[in-house]
Amino acid sequence: MVRHLIILQTIVVWNLPLFKILQHTLSLIGISMVAGVIGLALSKAASDKKMLPIITNKQKFYYWSFAAMSSVFVTICKLIFVSSGNFIGILVVAPISGFCLGILLKSLFWNTKRHRT
């Protein structure tokens, strides 16, 4: 798409084309909006929680091990199944995506039955 729209390829500032400036600007706007929503939700959250979960070191180890294994798994799958020649990009992005996926999946299925008062 960028190749077809000449205006996106024009150099604007600091020898950067317009599409790069738009890409990074919109990414920063999106991250700022997510941070704002999280901040708003945290400011409205009730702080009178009486029950806190008891999490042992063994449970923490399993949690973070799952995230790390997910990172390795996603990276290996990406290297095997994608025909892109951008190995450096894959080796940077895939582990981060896999780690986030591992945290998300483990958090969704995390079961804390014991609580402390």
Question: In words, what does this structure look like?
Answer:
The protein is mostly helical and 117 residues long. It has 2 domains: 1-45; 48-117, no CATH class. Helix content is 67%, strand content 8%. The chain contains 4 helices and 4 strands. A two-stranded antiparallel sheet has the order 1-2. The chain has a two-stranded antiparallel sheet with strand order 3-4. Helix 3 (57-81) packs antiparallel against helix 4 (87-108).
Instruction: Kindly state the number of beta strands.
Output: 4
Task: Please give the order of strands in the largest beta sheet.
Answer: 1-2
Strand content: 5-15%
| Secondary-structure element string | HEEHEHHE
Briefly note the structural class of the backbone: mainly alpha
Low-confidence stretches: none
Q: What is the gyration radius calculated from CA atoms?
A: 21 Å
Overall shape: it is: flat
In which range does the helix fraction lie?
55-70%
- Tally the structural domains: 2
Please identify the oligomeric state.
Answer: single chain
The number of helical elements comes to 4
For the biggest sheet, the summary is:
2 strands, antiparallel
Instruction: Give the mean pLDDT.
Output: 85
Question: What separation lies between the terminal Cα atoms?
Answer: 57 Å
